[in-house]
């Protein structure tokens, strides 16, 4: 039996628009073998609630998401990591938050819990109080060989960036292994959302990863709307897309500049920063906030576009469009810069396929997946974006995907603003039970949200997944064989979110 058929043999639970099937523990136990035999079923996420484990899959051929669940009998469930390496960190997170153990897991070291929490399994429903003790030293995977030594970096860094620890094993100047240790930005986001209405809880996904505040606000709202059977007004849908594409534009400009800066080429960094500032000021003029935080709410959007807002946005786009060709010529024509980016941080397309990595990380290594097209959602069903794909797999390929995407995004914003529907921008939400899930393409890749509401319309279970969950492990693979000095430029070419995976 295929993995898809095995999942669909479970009992439907009524999730919308992607059904969730409840398997018994024995059927879930057969899932790892079935997944090995069906490589086209990609794992998107793995999470839990007390006594129950959930997984989200993507049927890449059909472009459809599929949800599966099973009871964790005795606090244990069959690990999916032997079949899907992307499950490794999810399984570690599940053990930390819910106290459920993945049997036969590839790796069960702590992930979010660094030994400083006062309880074990804080979301398990029965957390266990822990005595105060000295936190244990972190465990890193071993490396053997002559002349191997370690370089610890972080979690506090020289720049104003998020905290994360990187443990390098090097031989001479060459990186033999890199291992990231995250969790320093854990905020208890999922716990804070429980027991709240979707409208009241919307502030939390908007802050899961601040540079993706629109994408996470949108995906959470879409999941809540699906659960409640709410139809969003056309004007609100269009405004969400305007904000989402503006978020894509300003982040891609920021990354373009910083990648060049990490190669000690400051001019593109300065110009991209200047152009990004123009976009952020236009966002503030149009929507009242530079990052457009808290502007997307379940049921619609919090505010309509301000008078003069469209003109401010179009002026910012005109400035970018005028300068992008020259910036690209400068990028292409400087040999010292090309020497740093071409061939550096190569990511094998086979690794991307195994992890189902999305965004510019995936598309830079030939994986042409974009959630705006598959599974797809409005308004992209009538405004399908061109998908930029590069096969090079290096820093240069990931940058070129970004440049192509920001150009496409500017065209989408122009079309959306030229034909904004009239009407209301938000509708009331009913108070009732339901279950919903959604995928929304943020600038890094697809963001996922799932939630279950009780009879009063309050959140009883929730999970939010940043695309970086499936990208951080690939950074570790991409840096192997490169010199230590190239880590900053490799890291920036991935630009994974720390906060997004720290929850």
Give the SSE layout.
Layout: H1 3-8, E1 11-12, E2 20-22, H2 25-29, H3 31-36, E3 41-49, E4 52-59, E5 64-71, E6 76-78, H4 87-98, E7 101-103, E8 119-120, E9 128-129, E10 148-153, E11 165-171, E12 174-181, H5 189-193, H6 198-201, H7 213-228, H8 234-262, H9 266-287, E13 296-297, E14 300-301, H10 309-333, H11 335-341, H12 349-355, H13 359-363, H14 372-376, H15 395-418, E15 434-441, E16 446-453, E17 459-465, H16 472-479, H17 487-494, H18 498-502
Parallel strand pairs: 2-5, 6-7
Antiparallel strand pairs: 1-2, 3-4, 4-5, 8-9, 10-11, 11-12, 13-14, 15-16, 16-17
Distance between the termini: 35 Å
Strand adjacency order, main sheet: 1-2-5-4-3
C-alpha-based Rg, rounded: 22 Å
What is the 3D form?
Answer: globular
Description:
Helices cover 40% and strands 17% of the residues. The chain is built from 18 helices and 17 strands. The protein is globular. 51% of the residues are buried.
Compact description:
With 503 residues, this protein is α+β, with helices and mostly antiparallel strands. The protein has helices spanning 3-8, 25-29, 31-36, 87-98, 189-193, 198-201, 213-228, 234-262, 266-287, 309-333, 335-341, 349-355, 359-363, 372-376, 395-418, 472-479, 487-494, 498-502; strands spanning 11-12, 20-22, 41-49, 52-59, 64-71, 76-78, 101-103, 119-120, 128-129, 148-153, 165-171, 174-181, 296-297, 300-301, 434-441, 446-453, 459-465. It folds into 2 domains: 3-129, 2-Layer Sandwich (Beta Polymerase, domain 2), CATH 3.30.460; 189-502, Cytochrome-c3 Hydrogenase, chain B.
